[in-house]
Amino acid sequence: MRSYEIAVVPGDGIGTEVMTEALRVLDRVSSEFGFGLKFRHFDWSCETYRKTGRMMPEDGIDRLRDHDSILLGAVGFPGVPDHISLWGLLIPIRREFDQYVSLRPVRLLPGLTPPLRDGASADVDFWVVRENTEGEYSQVGGRQGTGTDQEMVVQVATFTRRATDRILRYAFDFSRGLGRPNLTLATKSNGIYHSMPYWDERFAEISAEYPDVATSQEHIDILCAKFVLQPERFDVVVGSNLFGDILSDLGPGVTGTIGVAPSANINPERVHPSMFEPVHGSAPDIAGQGIANPIGQIWSAAMLLDHLGEEEAGAHVMRAIETVLGSAGAPLTPDLGGRAATGELGSAIVNAIGERG
Ligand code: ATP
Ligand code: MG
After folding, report:
1. Which atom of ligand 1 is nearest to the CA of 75?
2. Ligand 2 centre and the CA of 227: distance in Å?
3. What is the pTM of this model?
């Protein structure tokens, strides 16, 4: 029997709650489709940090290395500064495993009500491809003249040709593979003097290798407006680390909740494991109440299955989510306008997986 080893890092807050549901779904779908999944649990979290002074052990990266994929919940909690939870776990994993693609689907699932206009007319179905290793999110820079009237902060954003070209190529290949060859570049070359003209230039040069892919580019400010006003225009959107981050929260926001949104941190060459996690964070405001929406985590698990090559199982999980959301009287969590608990929505999806049509 085909079998895969999955590292499971539930993390903090609602991360642990939604992970329970995703693992139930994975158990069920793997037995339906006849492959094995071995889960190895790592209880790395802000709690671990409070006890040990580290988010994960020193050899944490090595312990993850031999897995086929990583499924992450959410890390971060009040009382532990963001830079510790991020730079102590998430960012080292992304960088050490060279997960240079962050891939985030944005789709209006059945039953969701977009906040800004009549749901029936909204056609929201596109993908955001974000550069995940460099750019604006850097530790290079610093403060000088602290406390004087010369006080100044410098934040350096570095864009290498290697990282820029490979994310752009991934986005072109992805557009092609999707069968919707229409790629938009997020830029800001009218304001950011050096780096964004460089992105425009690389985009133009690489697009010559993909004559079948239609291209456009938009400045990030107007692009944000168009995500809201004309989401149907987009198929695949590619951007730098910062622009991609903004767009991949804005996208799900347009669909009505970030609770359903998944993301994949991919090492396309498969030299290292890729990591799958919901877009949302640990949501301290609702943690412990059992009302978090588990769909972002379950959809992330479906992306994990696709990455393993179990696309049929992944598609089946998506159908189960859509069947449940589209059915009358579905047990919806409060963010979807219902009153159901996390486990009730999770169970409905697990049951729908059993009903293979
Ligand atoms: P991070 O910095 O880790 O991304 P964040 O500050 O962006 O975290 P989230 O934890 O994502 O914040 O939460 C943002 C808001 O969305 C909160 O009000 C939270 O309750 C809500 N939210 C997030 N995830 C879910 C979910 N799965 N179900 C319901 N509500 C959610
Ligand atoms: Mg966030």
Report:
1. 3
2. 18
3. 0.93
179 Cβ contact list (under 8 Å, min separation 6): none
Give the residue, by CA position, lying nearest to ligand 1 atom 1: 281
- Domain membership of residue 197 (yes or no) is yes
Closest residue to atom 21 of ligand 1, CA basis: 283
Residue 250 lies in a domain: no
Residue 252 within a domain: no
Residue nearest to atom 15 of ligand 1 (CA): 283
Whether 216 and 292 map to the same domain: the answer is no
CB neighbourhood size of 315 (10 A): 13
Contact 268, 137 (CB under 8 A): no
> pLDDT tens digit string along 130-176?
999 999 988 899 999 999 999 999 999 999 999 999 999 999 999 99
Q: What's the domain count of the chain?
A: 2
Q: What is the pLDDT of residue 117?
A: 65
Q: Enter the ipTM.
A: 0.94
Any domain includes 201? yes
- Structural element, H or E, at residue 41: strand 36-41
Given strand 262-266, what is the order of strands in its sheet?
36-41, 3-11, 69-74, 274-278, 262-266, 101-107, 125-131, 236-239, 182-187, 214-219
Same domain assignment for residues 350 and 264: yes
Which atom of ligand 1 is closest in space to residue 295's alpha carbon? 27
What is the spatial distance between Cα 181 and Cα 33, in angstroms, rounded to a whole number?
31
Whose atoms come closest to the Cα of 19: which ligand?
A: 1
φ/ψ region of 76 (left if φ > 0, alpha if ψ in -120 to 50, else beta) reads left
CATH number of the structural domain spanning residue 20: 3.40.718.10
Tokens 């403060």 correspond to what residue?
A: 143
Residues with CB under 6 A from ligand 1: 14, 18, 74, 76, 258-259, 280-283, 285-286, 292-293, 296, 335
159 and 98 inside one domain: no
Task: Supply the range of the domain harboring residue 136.
Answer: 113-239
What is the chain's length?
357
